[in-house]
Automatic annotation (TrEMBL):
Family to which the UniProt record says this protein belongs: Belongs to the EPSP synthase family.
GO biological process per UniProt: amino acid biosynthetic process; aromatic amino acid family biosynthetic process; chorismate biosynthetic process
Biological or metabolic pathway of the protein: Metabolic intermediate biosynthesis; chorismate biosynthesis; chorismate from D-erythrose 4-phosphate and phosphoenolpyruvate: step 6/7
Keyword Membrane annotated: no
Protein name, as recorded: 3-phosphoshikimate 1-carboxyvinyltransferase
Source taxonomy: Bacteria, Pseudomonadati, Bacteroidota, Flavobacteriia, Flavobacteriales
Superkingdom to which the source organism belongs: Bacteria
Residue stretches making up the Enolpyruvate transferase domain: 62-396
Protein's UniProt keywords contain Amino-acid biosynthesis: yes
Catalyses which reaction(s): 3-phosphoshikimate + phosphoenolpyruvate = 5-O-(1-carboxyvinyl)-3-phosphoshikimate + phosphate
Gene3D superfamilies hit by this protein: Enolpyruvate transferase domain
GO molecular-function terms, A-Z: 3-phosphoshikimate 1-carboxyvinyltransferase activity
Amino acid sequence: MDKKLLKSELISGKKIEISGSKSETNRLLLLQAIYPEIVIKNASDSDDSEVMKKALLKQAGKIDIHHAGTAMRFLTAFFASQRGKEVILTGSTRMKQRPIHILVQALQDLGAEISYLENEGCPPLYIKGKELKVSEVCMSADVSSQYISALLLIAPSLYKGLKINLIGEVTSAPYIKMTLALLSEIGVSSDFEGNTIYVRPLKNLHKKEITVESDWSSASYWYSFVALSAVGTCLKLSSYKEHSFQGDSILSEVYTFFGVETIFSDNEIVIRKIQSVENVVFKYDLRNAPDIAQTIAVTCFGLGIGCELTGLHTLKIKETDRLEALKTELRKLGANIEVSDKDLFLKSGGTINKNVSVETYNDHRMAMAFAPLMLKTNVIISDSEVVSKSYPNFWKDVENVIIQKKGD
């Protein structure tokens, strides 16, 4: 269903409750499947996490994870290491185009029995679970950190643990550190030095309750809403920590450039627009937080300023080719934008076109990243329900914090 967003303004002072981080939740769900003593609180209510929950209960047969890339990577490692389980992992048409050969090769090097059922290097996969007895593996580090995290999550359950030798420059290191931090919370010992990670085995675990921090990626859209609002506008978001595991928590630093301050108080943050932005160019290397690239690019366009975003090579293999999607949709709105295979260049200025229909390409982040432009113009979001992949209550929250401008 398309959603027409009429030109509106943000109601200052409203509070938004955001569910637990999808990234943390999916990691903990897998760990809980291995160690049932784990109790998870404030889990994500996203489609991706629901897919993970259901898949982890299956012992055999076909498992369709739809568009859930994280689930595909994590479940591949999980089922490969579970003796006696025999599954076929498949997904959407786009999922069948997304490469997974680096992870599969690493698992095969560890002794896993995995084969491709259609196109070489991509899902669907046939997996026959078995005990993985090899304890050291090499893996390319510059594609997706989810491949590395998938191995790290099963590492404590392996007889000798696991040593991973990473080749090349590490991408999205905060997500690797998030995985290791969650392992540490359940008592797993590990070392991460240079390009080598060693995770020691964990045989026994007493009951452990873990509360998931709210999702920083979801917070990014509210930072954009505030950045595109008048000076003095603020929102409250819960539940967030000043010292977060999540790489996207750099939002509190990044959005100071757009005149937005972040105040941490108890279990929430207050984000406030404290000054207007000069006509300058925002430059940032997002290799450690590529998921907020779409939000930042749209924020810059809405403010009429330029940006140069680098380190975006992983966006080509997401739910869609996010760089090409951004270029196409922002150009429709009037932007002067160019992209390469890893960078984005947006020029300042230009007029924001009205009543443009933004395609979402089955990508939840496209829908939510473009929504704040409703503060500047009328905009239509195609296939708006795609937000349920990570933030099912997004449109309800939007309706609660905006008011239509008179005369628009």
